[in-house]
Design a protein that fits this description.
- Helices cover 27% and strands 26% of the residues.
- It contains 10 helices and 17 strands.
- The strands form 4 sheets. Strands 3, 4, 5, 8, 9, 16 and 17 form a 7-stranded mixed β-sheet that branches. A 6-stranded parallel β-sheet has the order 12-11-10-13-14-15, sandwiched between helices. A two-stranded antiparallel sheet has the order 1-2.
- Bound molecules: zinc ion (2 copies).
- One zinc ion binds next to helix 2.
């Protein structure tokens, strides 16, 4: 292993107990890259809503109850961009991995490659998978060991500052749009269009040829959402979004991507849809509420309802490529790593447009 200049200890943002505060620890060990691993130096990392949920102890599993099996102390971060600084002892030339190469630190960390979901290209659901949110330390640290076989290898000509949020928010938004089966010229509503996930959903929908209606609130969000290419903006605080969507589209929207964390927004989105429309669920409202749409509405209107958890590595690379080519432009604000506690506070208040990226490497 080539390890010149790699320190033995590092600074990490640590959460000792769920529901507790995040503190910076400066003498946390730098991991050694083991068999089939590489060591990456973290350059930048996005901050995702699910980092906040995990820290707070409010992250929900598929049955809606809080996930309790979380590695403690917890080091969050799953929208990281790193640079390979060392290769594990068995990594040879044939792996095609080089010191200096850019890599992504995503939600999924390791997969089995053999289960039904891995074989189907939906490996984010792998029954033996681990992730950088509940099982392994994530990108809120200076150095990270990553699985060489499931490595997110990035092209070296991408801007590492903007790419972090693409790996979770971007991928989730891209997959949510793909799940709607939208076609060029179709109307797609993004509820929460001015947020970190929403502003990427607007742009990925546009990249698929959709006509986009952004729903959010305030003049700042209006300018922002129209500025990234939405055809229409509806302010839910001053207008009736359901009525307005029908006025714009005639029969209703073909699809709605809901990134809001409010259960009512999902039921309202169903009312915005035309016959045969698709509701693509992204946000996870707190408190485990159910979708309030009457079953008869779903049946008679022939609605489709889809959900998804991030996406596959292949879909991630597609989402990355659209950003690399300038088709989708993540709106980010770079702040120092030490700002993480304040960023969490601002996220709790919900007053962040676009996405925050922390600069981890000095
Ligand atoms: Zn995330
Ligand atoms: Zn698997």
């Amino acid at each position: 292993m080539a390890s010149t200049g790699i320190p033995k200890t590092q600074t990490v943002a640590l959460v000792r107990d769920l529901g507790g505060t995040v503190e910076f620890k400066t003498d946390y060990p730098v991991p050694m890259p083991g068999t089939n691993e590489v060591l990456a130096k973290v350059l930048y990392t996005g901050v995702c809503q699910s980092d906040l949920h995990t820290k707070a102890g409010t992250a929900a599993g598929p049955d809606g109850t809080p996930i309790t099996k979380i590695k403690l102390p917890h080091v969050g971060g799953h929208e990281g961009i790193g640079e390979i600084v060392a290769l594990g002892p068995d990594i040879t030339h044939s792996h095609g991995l080089k010191v200096g190469g850019l890599v992504g630190i995503r939600f999924s960390s390791r997969i089995c490659r053999r289960c039904e979901f891995c074989l189907a290209g939906t490996e984010q659901y792998c029954i033996k998978s681990t992730n950088h949110l509940h099982h392994e330390d994530g990108s809120f640290q200076q150095y990270i060991a990553l699985d060489a076989d499931y490595l997110t290898v990035l092209p070296n000509d991408v801007d590492p500052k903007v790419m972090g949020p693409v790996l979770c928010a971007g991928l989730t938004a891209y997959k949510a749009v793909l799940n709607t089966n939208i076609r060029p010229g179709n109307w797609l509503v993004v509820v929460g269009a001015g947020g970190g996930l929403g502003h990427l959903a607007v742009q990925y929908a546009k990249a698929q040829g959709a006509l986009v209606i952004g729903v959010d609130t305030g003049p700042g969000k209006r300018d922002f959402v129209l500025g990234i290419g939405a055809q229409e903006f509806i302010d839910f605080a001053t207008e009736d979004p359901i009525q307005k969507v029908h006025a714009i589209t005639g029969l209703g929207a073909h699809a709605a991507v809901v990134t809001a964390g409010n259960a009512k927004a999902f039921a309202h989105a169903c009312e915005m849809l035309r016959v045969g429309g698709t509701l693509s669920c992204v946000g996870i409202p707190p408190g485990n509420p159910c979708l309030e749409t009457p079953i008869c509405t779903i049946v008679i209107k022939g609605l489709r309802i889809t959900g998804n958890l991030v996406g596959s590595l292949k879909e991630c690379m597609e989402a990355v490529d659209l950003v690399r080519r300038g088709v989708v432009k993540p709106v980010i604000k770079v702040r120092p790593f030490k700002d993480l506690p304040q960023v969490y506070e601002e996220m709790e208040k919900g007053d962040i447009a676009g996405r925050i990226v922390l600069q981890v490497a000095e």
